[in-house]
Structures are given as C-alpha cells and as structure tokens.
Amino acid sequence: MSSERLFGIVEQPEPTCPMIDETLARMEKIREHVSEVREWGQEWKDKAVEFDDELDKAKDEILDLEKKISQLEKELAEAQKVLA
Question: What confidence score (pLDDT) does residue 5 get?
C-alpha cells in the first residue's frame, strides 16, 4: 500500500518532465509535418506559376502565328490578283 492510500491522499501524478518531453516531441512532429505541407504547397504554387508563364508564352506564339497567317493570306490574295 502506498503512503498516499494509507493517508487518503491523491496518488502522486506522473512525473512532469516525461509528460513535457512527450508533449514537446509531439509538437516537433506537428511542426515537421506542417513544414512538409508548406513545402509541398509551395512546390505546387511554383509549378502553377511556371504553367501560367508557359501558357502566356504559348498564347503569344499563337497570336504571332495568327498575324503571320493573316499577312500570308493578304499576300496570297494580292498574288492571285496579279496572276488573274
């Protein structure tokens, strides 16, 4: 029988240091996880920006090609008039 029980006192609580250590270890795991999630999110954000830049370049190239096609169509029409 423990002294606490003998005298009707509440049992001694678990030592505080192991509880604190366990809590800190859990917090560190949470921090690591949050850091991993942030890194993952940043990589996707960077990739999205990269895709957006590529899309803008592709749109510019399409516009340039459309202008060239339009110019070639005009030149073709003029050449057909000359040949007719």
Answer: 86
